[in-house]
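Suppose a colleague, Dr. K., hands you the sequence of a protein chain of 253 amino acids and asks what its three-dimensional shape might be. Before reaching for any lab equipment, you can write down a predicted structure in token form. Begin with the sequence itself:
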Amino acid sequence: MPSVFDSQAFNANLFFPRQDTAPTPEDSDEIQVQVGPETRVHVRRHPSPEARFSLLFFHGNGEIVSDYDNLAGHFSVMGAELIVADFRGYGRSTGFPTLRASLEDAHKIFEQLKSTGKFKEKVCIMGRSLGSAPTLELCAKRSDVVGCVLESGYADPVPLVERRGLKIDQTTPEEDAVFNNSEKIRSVKCPLLIMHGADDFLIASHEAKLNYDNAGSKVKHLEILEGVGHNDMMMAGSYFTSLKRFFDSWSSL
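The predicted structure, expressed as tokens, is then:
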């Protein structure tokens, strides 16, 4: 039975791809992951020899890899070697983005990075907004992930498109198992940090609370940051402090 999550109407209301015309950083490691016969996804690794772990980052639906070029240094200071992945059709990637493809591609990205020696021994996955979906896909299904971070993540994808006028009456248990973050997060066992803006009006903070309550992790933290919304989380004074505290709790063990 066809799923509404595979429809053009759903995905056109969820993804907003744009091309990447920014110059390539001199020291970046440019990686193309073949995810289909004629489809590849661009991944950028910012080498940091002193980093204690790799941080695979999935961005939001209006962002691209190069938006994070200037942040690699901030993560390096915290011990993380930043690796940012695009979605299909975004930046220097080819193809067309769908939610299902983003979940399937996450595994292919992870496997290629691991098999080609691009990962350090410890790997943490972090996702912002829509990037929370591939993040949870990996963290729920892989035992070789040591940490999970959700920033401004959603619980259920349906409200994301309903606010743009697409009405979805009902979802099946099978669809929820694949696409609903608050269900999938029950299978996450690694240490988990959920960060959300108190003034987020795109994805309300109660969705972060639902994800936190449902999470299967024994070690989990929920931080609702005051004075910030969906797209200005880094403006919160405690943003990098919270991340560093979480990273330090397991990366030096």
